[in-house]
């Protein structure tokens, strides 16, 4: 089964509230064997809307990434991000031969 990536593009509008999200989101993602491979590092926008923060996490499957998002723990974390950020988040399956 191919691995999957969470790809998030975020503009934080309330740093204090978003900090509460980040504190809870990390453990929720780890509980589903998710691992951050990019988080808030350097970037260059080549097309589309620019957001100041970009996060990528890898999961063992698309289903595991989606289950993490729907979990009670992640939804609790997400309650702090709502109203504190503008976000786009997608979970996408890697091609079979991609290695991370």
From TrEMBL:
This is DUF1330 domain-containing protein. Pfam families: DUF1330. Gene3D superfamilies: 3.30.70.100. Coiled coil: none annotated. It comes from the Bacteria. PANTHER family: BLR0684 PROTEIN, PTHR41521. InterPro entries: Dimeric_a/b-barrel, DUF1330. SUPFAM superfamilies: Dimeric alpha+beta barrel (SSF54909). Residues 3-93 form the DUF1330 domain.
